[in-house]
Amino acid sequence: MKESPYFTNLKCRECGKLYPKKAIHICEEDFGPLECVYDYEVIRRDISREKIAARAKSMWRYRELLPLDGEPTIGLQAGFTPLIRANRLAKRLGVKELYLKNDTVNYPTLSFKDRVVSVALSRAVELGFDTVACASTGNLANSVAANAASAGLKSYVFIPADLEHSKVLNSLVYSTTLVGIQGPYDQVNRLCSEIAGKYGWAFVNVNIRPYYAEGSKTMGFEIVEQLNWKIPAHTVACMASGSLLTKLHKAYQELVKVGLVEPSPFHIHGAQATGCAPISHAFKQGRDLIQFVKEPKTIAKSLAIGTPADGYYALGVMKETGGSCEDVTDEEIIEAIKLLAETEGIFTETAGGVTLGCAKKLIENGKIPKDEPIVLVITGNGLKTQEVLDGHLSEPHLIHPSLKEFDALLEREKVDIKS
User: Fold this and answer.
1) Is the model's pLDDT at 416 over the cut of 70?
2) Which of 81, 107, 320, 372 has most Cβ atoms within 10 angstroms of its Cβ?
């Protein structure tokens, strides 16, 4: 296959050593993570807003800035999810201009993980793999299972054994080999590193991680294009490993480098659940060192990573952009899920509740000004974590098929409203 003129190498984030574009993720010199490198001058020459606008509305419309040598083969319909002007929610939060990047409707498994998996599996096929795998807190498992099935790849997904039932079912339906591990995500991830070395599979978030992580950039590309090629002043995103924050940052920077957008100040803010908030705690305490969380305790299981691989770099993004960080309790997550549903008709999973709950705090404490544009990244669909709302919603009204009983119900409702 002819190599891409745009995607040139892998490079160590720490020492800058260049590597060939293989299934590797760690620098042999200092164990720093590897990331993808592009020739921005060539991309600048070949890309334009008009060229992008003429392409299909998917994440692949920015393909010069993604790490493939050829055309994508998996996840062709992923991305280009709606960016919604959220006026009712803005009014409740007391802000002037608020948008929601709604990846609850991403294709095919209703989370932003379809972006990263589409890139990872397309690259895995280019590298000759026929078996793919992942360590996951749920959404990634769903997406690897679904996209592998659609491509005829054999797949293995490894999850903590206590994951939400809905996410387990949403992987099993694709006939993947699902393995539940008795332990938190970090132990699952360590085991997967050993398995990847022994069996030579394409683990999307281990040996394919440099390619996989680049898929998150497409969310940032779309936000800017959907804002008529403007970078939002404030972007708030949830953090598990911290990778999403670093890739939103990279996306905004790359659009400037290739001449698609004018440079402007922007701030990226992070959100975590209090029950597993190693990055938030480090930020608030002014530390660069992440203190790992051995036993996460939060209903936001998709964010329950006690040893965030990109935590250090996420801290750097928040500091460099003048962003901030918050964390929210389980009760605040549930209230935020309900607030988003009641005001904008969007049912988010717990991670989206974390994002909104933290944004609310950041606005209230003045870290995000009320008169500047704000984008909240909503990463997954609430149908996947319905269990957390048990006991927190009103019960349905039960009546017989009788107009008289319905009239009586309305009368009682009026009384309840007055009281």
Assistant:
1) no
2) 81
- What global pTM score does this model have? 0.95
Contacts of 411 (CB under 8 A, 6+ apart): none
> pLDDT > 70: what percent of the chain?
99
Query: Residue 154 forms beta bridges with which residues?
Result: 131
Residue 387 CA to chain centroid, in angstroms? Answer: 21
The answer for residues whose C-beta is within 8 angstroms of residue 401's C-beta and 6 or more apart is none
Residue 164 in this model has a pLDDT that exceeds 90: no
Question: What are φ and ψ of residue 355, in 5° steps?
Answer: -60, -50
Residue located via tokens 């962003």: 323
Alpha-carbon distance of 347 to 353, in angstroms, equals 9
Q: Which residues have C-beta within 8 Å of that of residue 180, sequence separation ≥ 6?
A: 159, 160, 161, 163, 168
Within 10 angstroms of residue 128's Cβ, the number of other Cβ atoms is 8
Q: How far is CA 401 from the centre of its chain?
A: 45
Whether residue 374 is predicted with pLDDT greater than 90 in this model: the reply is yes
Element (H, E) at 159: strand 154-160
